[in-house]
Design a protein that fits this description.
Elements: E1 2-5, H1 10-18, E2 22-25, E3 31-32, E4 34-37, H2 41-44, E5 48-49, E6 55-58, H3 64-73
Parallel strand pairs: 1-2, 1-4, 3-5, 4-6
Helix pairs in contact: 1-3
Length: about 80
């Protein structure tokens, strides 16, 4: 899965990369399956989506493991 991320999430991107996700900076000009963001979804929406579309994931307050689960399921369930 190709995942785009902003510069402020490079630490999480490294952790997700070690879990098998293909991580790319937002400006990498890829067809993204998912896009991570924390503050501004507008920039995340500027990424080119893959054929299935791009899953926009607000990772604010999430651990890398929680983000990985949300990416795999393509959904974010409420965190209790």
């Amino acid at each position: 899965m190709k995942v785009a991320y902003p510069a402020n999430l490079s630490q999480m991107a490294g952790a997700l990369g070690s879990m098998g996700f293909e991580m790319h900076p937002l400006d990498a000009n890829i067809l993204a399956d998912a896009v991570l963001y924390t503050t501004s979804p507008m920039r995340a929406m500027s990424v080119k989506p893959a054929a299935r579309g791009a899953f926009l994931l607000d990772v604010r307050g999430m651990s890398a493991a929680q983000a990985a689960q949300a990416l795999r399921n393509r959904t974010r369930e409420p965190i209790l």
